[in-house]
Design goal:
With about 500 residues, the chain is an alpha/beta fold. The chain has 16 helices and 16 strands.
């Protein structure tokens, strides 16, 4: 009997070893898109639903561009004397502002010394992210100006002068400080990384050489020393993925790097790759995708991603607007990556903090209807009359307040989204942007004998009846003080018919 047990143990060990070897072989990613696309996006990303984007660098010193444009593109606007965004521009606005403010001979690179991060407290940032209800964050480890928030020898070498936060300005490894602080929390740590650099001498001389001798080693240094949970690639559009050698780089990332098993990537790895290959799909100042693949919408609380002192209070999206944007994205199966732009000293503007904390307050009550959910058979219920999906005309980027027109403030002749839906197993969540009067009719929902309906954030059980294919909720008359949250309210409907 002992010999038999010994043989069984040996066989189990052999089977386990073989299984591990097979799994290792299955995990190996080849340097081609078919193989890369076969790797599923880790499920935690789809569960997260809400992340915080941070644009921070030397452009945070001048912190200026015309309304409707990106302030983090300051160097490009300055040196190219061009401009695009929402508005009618001559193209020289940033150049004219720069000459008037700093003089004609003041170089953009001087802003590196002025990027002091004097007030930066990584632990306070991380605490804010947690209180906002974010499940991940993403910071610009390097934007298109080539300046890195970590001590990159590659940056110094190809630029020919110190061009990173450890050697100039702050004289600190800002990325490491933030990594350490965030990884003490339950928030995932992500790094934005621009493949290209507008005016890097090597980039201007030989783009493919730049990719292999600058971008690849710098990217690997970032990954191995900071071990991000997510990588948000950008600046990919000037070359094909083949010239960027992105498939080879991603094969290294998944097969050989320290984060290969769990790291999440996006879809910006070369011209034509976006919305086609890579990891999750990314939209920017758009409304929604169909949810057939994990995706993420990114936009700022103000219009600009980088801090823009030219923006006024009314240029920032309201608390209500941001919550409705979150609902629209999540109901369509996506995540919202909402951007903040700290100033050059490392202070997050109070108006941005207030907006994040308002979202956090709402999620503390309604998080069950958001986190870990998936898209239902339809994202929302439209009102009966009117055209759907109003959008403003003549804008390059979709302004945040479009969602108000689609919910509580419709244009004449247009319908509104009466209910947003999410699901979790056999439970359906119906989230309304307006508190219903007396009844709420949910079309084409069939309940079972086990169905119960609760108002999330309260102990209230909601009475209901099935009328044909429609579910009718008998909604109690609550005052504003009795409602569990502001702006939107979540009903949990258990055990619906599949």
């Amino acid at each position: 009997m002992r010999n038999l047990k010994f043989l069984v143990l040996v066989l189990c060990a052999i089977v386990s070893t073989l299984g591990q070897e097979i799994n290792a072989q299955q995990k190996k990613i080849e340097p081609n898109w078919e193989s890369i696309d076969s790797r599923p996006v880790p499920s935690w990303f789809e569960d997260a639903k809400f992340g915080i984007f941070i644009h921070w660098g030397p452009y945070s010193v001048p912190a200026w561009s015309p309304k409707g444009t990106y302030a983090e593109w300051y160097q490009y606007w300055l040196q190219s004397k061009s401009l695009f965004g929402n508005g009618d521009f001559s193209g020289t606005e940033v150049y004219d502002h720069h000459v008037k403010t700093y003089g004609p001979h003041f170089s953009y690179y001087n802003f590196g010394e002025q990027f002091t991060a004097r007030d930066f407290d990584a632990d306070k940032w991380a605490e804010l992210f947690e209180n906002a209800g974010a499940k991940y964050m993403m910071i610009t480890s390097k934007h298109h100006d080539g300046f890195t928030l970590w001590p990159s020898e590659t940056a110094n070498k190809t630029w020919g002068f110190p061009w990173n936060a450890k050697d100039v300005g702050a004289k600190r490894d800002l990325l490491k400080e933030l990594e350490v602080a965030v990884k003490k929390t339950d928030v995932k740590f992500g790094t934005y990384y621009s493949l290209y650099e507008w005016f890097n001498p090597l980039w201007k001389e030989d783009k493919e050489k730049f990719a292999l001798e600058h971008m690849h080693p710098q990217f690997k240094d970032l990954v191995e020393n900071y071990k991000p949970d997510l990588i948000w690639s950008d600046g990919d559009w000037d070359m094909s993925a083949e010239k960027w050698h992105s498939p080879e780089l991603l094969a290294w990332l998944f097969n050989e790097s320290a984060v290969g098993d769990e790291v999440v990537i996006n879809d910006r790895w070369g011209d034509g790759i976006r919305f086609n290959h890579g990891g999750y799909f990314t939209t920017e100042y758009q409304s929604e995708l169909d949810g057939s693949r994990p995706w993420e919408e990114c936009r700022g609380i103000g219009f600009s991603f980088g801090y823009n002192t030219n923006e006024d209070a009314w240029d920032y999206a309201s608390e209500r607007t941001l919550i409705y944007l979150l609902l629209n994205v999540v109901s369509n199966g996506g995540n919202l990556l909402l951007d903040i732009g700290p100033d050059a000293q490392g202070n997050i503007p109070p108006i941005m903090q207030d907006r994040l904390l308002a979202i956090g307050d709402w999620l503390k009550v309604n998080g069950e209807a958001i986190y870990g959910t998936r898209k239902w058979e339809r994202a929302c219920q439209w009102s009966k009359k009117g055209k759907k999906d109003w959008k403003p005309e003549g804008t390059h980027y979709l302004p945040a307040d479009y969602i108000l027109k689609q919910t509580i403030d419709p244009e004449p002749g247009y319908a509104v989204r009466e209910i947003f839906f999410t699901k979790k197993g056999s439970d359906l969540f119906a989230i309304v942007p307006k508190w219903p009067k007396n009844t709420l009719i949910i079309k084409d929902v069939m309940v079972t004998d086990q169905t119960e309906i609760n108002l999330i954030g309260t102990n209230l059980k909601i009475e209901f009846v099935q009328k044909g294919k429609d579910l009718v909720l008998k909604v109690p008359n609550l005052t504003n003080d009795e409602l569990p949250s502001k702006y939107a309210y979540s009903f949990k409907i258990t055990n619906i018919k599949k």
